[in-house]
UniProtKB/TrEMBL annotation:
This is Acyl-coenzyme A thioesterase THEM4. It comes from Parambassis ranga. It comes from the Eukaryota. Its EC number is 3.1.2.2. Residues 159-231 form the Thioesterase domain. It is a peripheral membrane protein. The gene is LOC114448008. The keyword Ribonucleoprotein does not apply.
Amino acid sequence: MARTLCRIFKGCQSICSLPLMKTRLHPSASVLLRTVCVRRMLTLPFRFSPKAQDFSLPNSSWGAEMRQLYEHYNSQCEEEMKGEEKQDWAWKRVPSYNRTLKHATGGVYLSKIYQSKARFFTRNIKEPGAAFEYVLFVSKDEQKCVCIFQAGHLLEGPQGYVHGGAIATMIDTVTVTHASVLTLLIMTANLNINYRRPIPLGSTVLIDSSLNKTEGRKVLISCKVTSTDGSKLHTEATALFVVSRLLGG
Ligand SMILES: CCCCCCCCCC(=O)SCCNC(=O)CCNC(=O)[C@H](O)C(C)(C)COP(=O)(O)OP(=O)(O)OC[C@H]1O[C@@H](n2cnc3c(N)ncnc32)[C@H](O)[C@@H]1OP(=O)(O)O
């Protein structure tokens, strides 16, 4: 970014220092030109935005089904007003970034270079819609989590269907997010999956997770992957999470 800024600055300087400009422009016009150049420079779309991108917001790759379901859950995320008092949210959308390590503290030592290159597995493919396109919502009582998942063409396993490992990844992601709402710093200890019906590539499915129980350091969660109308069961799973001693639990 510094190099880009430098180049734009040099460009501005060279425009304002052109002999033609010096001779023909009134000094106040030259100041105005510089101001315009600097303003333009500040509004240019930089390649490296300092703001983290939230990948769980709608993009052009989302199909109609994905959008409809997103609207359905997102509309329930609005604040409810009762009298003058603000009520709790019914659902919360979970933002999703691709740099989890950037904010990590303690636990594992990683070199600066390694940290700067690390990307969250499900959010590391740049082409929208090519792989894991999903958004997660958690319920206000924190006992339920729903994910709308659209499986892109890079997730193929059997011809025309989603790879079992990609489905497992999504189940792990949804259940770990659910468990993280209940308790921090957890690791997946056990994931038990039954694949009942293949998921067509490009289709949208619902991943529903429910809390079974918590027991000391253990959190048990069950999960179902269904068609969006709930009529077809694709996958079911149970997951065990343990608050990690390594992570400070
Ligand atoms: C918010 C979004 C963030 C997204 C992050 C994405 C992350 C996605 C999640 C992952 O993929 S995590 C990566 C995959 N998992 C691992 O690499 C975990 C590797 N294993 C470990 O680190 C440890 O084995 C573990 C922390 C799971 C447990 O080790 P501990 O030494 O802390 O536990 P311990 O052996 O004392 O067992 C505690 C309890 O859990 C039980 N337990 C542990 N592992 C088990 C297991 N595998 N199966 C069944 N029970 C298990 C164990 O029996 C015991 O039960 P009791 O308290 O009733 O006696």
